[in-house]
Design goal:
This protein has 6 helices and 18 strands. The chain has 2 domains: 132 residues, Diaminopimelate Epimerase, Chain A, domain 1 (Roll), CATH 3.10.310; 160 residues, Diaminopimelate Epimerase, Chain A, domain 1, CATH 3.10.310. The chain is α+β, with helices and mostly antiparallel strands. It has an 18-stranded mixed beta sheet that branches. Helix content is 22%, strand content 41%. The longest helix has 15 residues. Helix 3 packs antiparallel against helix 5.
Length: 299
């Protein structure tokens, strides 16, 4: 029997019960895959992060991520939560560390501000996948309850990844965005066809403090709607540069995204896209966090 340190943390917010909740086990050494899956199912957050000790000079921690039904390679809000919990527990100073994930070994910046922390995670390799068309696109629009006329012009419906792929769907009306009531069963079937389990629907407004407002649906992995999604807004930043949809200085694009409004869990993500020769080459997301509770479980 061993005691494990368990945190419930809300990411991309400083207000409890908003943002995106994640479970974190900070001392996961010894847990089996089955035990981790059971803990994730019990907590029933969209993701729970398990921090393992490093056995390599190349990274400081190994983190695995589980939804209530399956393991995923990486998760934005649970990464923010994991490193926030680790920083608080170990009273860390500002530093850049590396963690091993299913998306590779990646840097994480821990910024200490007085007695609190802000976390910046560099995401994985940028990959531009299939642009949906024909029957697949029609099925997606039907599942979301939107029409072709409600899509943003020049914003192709495309699968993009920075470690965990999402279908990016730009629409032209924020009222439609917040009124969406997807057919989750249809989205699950489509996910099996296109081999992508997340759908990020967004609006864009260059004149707003928040360039992006969005909603993310991933019923195929047990998440009907995710409140605030790092692995959706990060790929979206790369996509906006790739398709030349926003102005930038050919060096860096930075913007804020607001998500979770439709389900009462609003949070804010800061996205940074490094650009070379008009192309996105690296994506990072930043966010704050707050501990909702801390306890121990004995297994």
């Amino acid at each position: 029997m061993k005691k494990y340190n368990l945190y419930q943390i809300d990411s991309f917010t400083k207000e409890k019960f908003t943002g995106n909740p994640a479970g974190v086990i900070t001392n996961a050494d010894g847990l089996t895959e089955l035990q981790m899956q059971k803990i994730a199912r019990e907590l029933n957050n969209s993701e729970t992060a398990f921090i393992f000790s490093s056995d390599s000079e190349f990274y400081d921690a190994h983190i695995r991520f589980f939804t209530p039904t399956s393991e995923v390679p990486i998760c934005g809000h649970a990464t923010i939560a994991a490193h926030y919990a680790r920083a608080v527990e170990n009273k860390l100073n500002s530093a850049v560390i590396h963690h091993k994930t299913g998306a590779g070994i990646l840097p994480v910046e821990i910024f200490k501000d007085e007695n609190d922390y802000k976390i910046t995670m560099t995401q994985g390799k940028i990959e531009f996948g299939t642009i949906l068309s024909g029957n697949e696109k029609e099925q997606l629009l039907t599942a979301l309850g939107i029409t072709n006329q409600e899509l943003l012009n020049n914003h192709p419906v495309q699968i993009v990844s920075t470690g965990h792929s999402k279908v990016l769907v730009g629409i032209n009306n924020p009222e439609i965005l917040h009124g969406l009531k997807p057919n989750y069963e249809m989205l699950v079937k489509l996910s099996d066809m296109i081999k992508c389990n997340g759908y990020y629907v967004y609006t864009i407004n260059p004149d707003d403090d928040f360039l992006i407002h969005g909603r993310m649906f991933a019923p195929a992995i047990g998440i009907n709607e995710d409140p605030v999604t790092g692995n959706a807004n990060g790929p979206l930043g790369a996509y906006l540069v790739h398709h030349n949809l926003v102005k930038h200085n050919n060096s860096m694009l930075k913007f804020k995204a607001k998500q979770g409004e439709a389900i009462g869990r609003t949070g804010i993500i800061e996205v940074s896209v490094k650009i070379e020769d008009q192309n996105p080459v690296e994506v990072a997301i930043s966010g704050e966090a707050v501990i909702v509770f801390h306890t121990e479980i004995t297994i």
